Amino acid sequence: MATATTTTAMAAAAAESEPQQSNVKPGLRKPVFIKVDQLKPGTSGHTLVAKVLSSNTVLQKGRSVSHHLRQTRIAECLIGDETGTIVFTARNDQVDLMKPEATIILRNAKIDMFKGSMRLAVDKWGRVEVTEPAQFVVKEDNNLSLIEYELVNVVEE
């Protein structure tokens, strides 16, 4: 019995000597929201709020024979904010969320290059959420997906 009391007293003393920790989980940080015009080729980890302007299904594959295989759906959606627009490639369940005039939050989005132009995508490590309607007007005359990029190798001498 004496050892249990001693152990409890030592644990209480150790708890008093350590600074009090809050209930915030380490590793979680506040998201930094960026604007569409800040997106650059080859970057990832973006969090942004955008409105869906249009959604076009470009691929719908699936086998009717085997029901256990998932159907693959891909849609190209034009999304934007008050700084510009970009094409977002929605896959499978993301396609259902891409309704015109919907406001979405993209978390951990990345830039994929397709035929020299930027496409925004969210893979399995990211998230697409529908949120309350945003109060901004989309700047439709600045489409970042229409800018064609070319990879240039620079030789240092």
What does it look like?
By secondary structure, the protein is mostly beta strands. It is built from two helices and six strands, in the order H-E-E-E-H-E-E-E. The chain has a single domain (30-146), classed as Beta Barrel (OB fold (Dihydrolipoamide Acetyltransferase, E2P)), CATH 2.40.50.140. It has helices at 2-17, 93-97, and strands at 44-61, 72-81, 84-91, 103-114, 117-121, 127-131. The chain has a five-stranded mixed beta barrel with strand order 1-2-3-5-4. It is globular and about 50 Å long. Residues 1-15 have a biased composition (Low complexity). It holds the Pfam family OB_Ssb-like.
Write the layout of secondary structure elements.
Elements: H1 2-17, E1 44-61, E2 72-81, E3 84-91, H2 93-97, E4 103-114, E5 117-121, E6 127-131
Parallel strand pairs: 3-5
Antiparallel strand pairs: 1-2, 1-4, 2-3, 4-5, 4-6
**Strands side by side in the biggest sheet:** 1-2-3-5-4
Question: Based on CA inertia axes, which overall geometry fits?
Answer: globular
CATH architecture: Beta Barrel
CATH fold descriptor: OB fold (Dihydrolipoamide Acetyltransferase, E2P)
Q: Strand tally, please?
A: 6
What is the makeup of the main sheet?
Answer: 5 strands, mixed, barrel
Stretches with pLDDT under 50, minimum 5 residues: 10-21
Number of helices: 2
Name the CATH homologous superfamily.
Nucleic acid-binding proteins
Helix and strand sequence: HEEEHEEE
Estimate the strand proportion: 35-45%
Mean pLDDT over the full residue set: 82
What is the CA-based Rg, rounded? 24 Å
Overall domain count: 1
Helix proportion = 10-25%
Domain Single-stranded DNA binding protein Ssb-like OB fold: 39-130
Pfam family, one: OB_Ssb-like
Region (Disordered): 1-26
Biased composition (Low complexity): 1-15
